[in-house]
Amino acid sequence: MRKIVATGLAALLASMPAPSRASGLEAARTLFQRYQQLADAYDPALADLYCDAAQVRNTRRHPDGTSRTLELPASRYRDLIRAAMPVAQRRGDRSTFSDARFAPEGDAVRITAMRHSVLKDYTSPVSLRVGACDGRGWGILEEITESRP
């Protein structure tokens, strides 16, 4: 009897679509597209994409080969984004993204891409882990970036 139930359950599960993975990837693509749109528009609402518990880490790589890693709580990073947007717009400081890749990572999706700083003319990797957060849909759970002075 157990074998019949297990076989039936396995058949039922195999016949069900896997919406969580496909819908998760689609949600991640939509979120990344929104991220780029808000950044291109210098819209401070970009800050609202970060979950309350988001982990933000930036490694600043200096020409002499040294580096310094800075970790910020989401609340402080949101404040920095909101304050920086008008300044970035005046300076024409924007980024473009290429080679975006999306990979499931548990209940979340890891987005990796290359970010090009138009003002400073360098390219560096960016990694975002996105998923459900704060009871308000999908957002950024983790951001890992590199920058140069």
User: Which geometry do the CA atoms define?
Assistant: globular
| Structure summary, number of beta strands | 6
Strand order in the sheet with the most strands: 2-1-6-5-4-3
CATH architecture: Roll
Q: Work out the count of structural domains.
A: 1
Low-confidence stretches: 1-19
Largest sheet composition: 6 strands, mixed
- What percentage of the residues does DSSP assign to strands (E)? 35-45%
Structural class: alpha+beta
Secondary structure: helix percent: 25-40%
Radius of gyration: 19 Å
- N- to C-terminal separation? 68 Å
CATH topology, by name, is: Nuclear Transport Factor 2, Chain: A
Order of helices and strands: HHEEHEEEE
Task: Provide the residue-averaged pLDDT.
Answer: 87
CATH class: Alpha Beta
Separate helix tally: 3
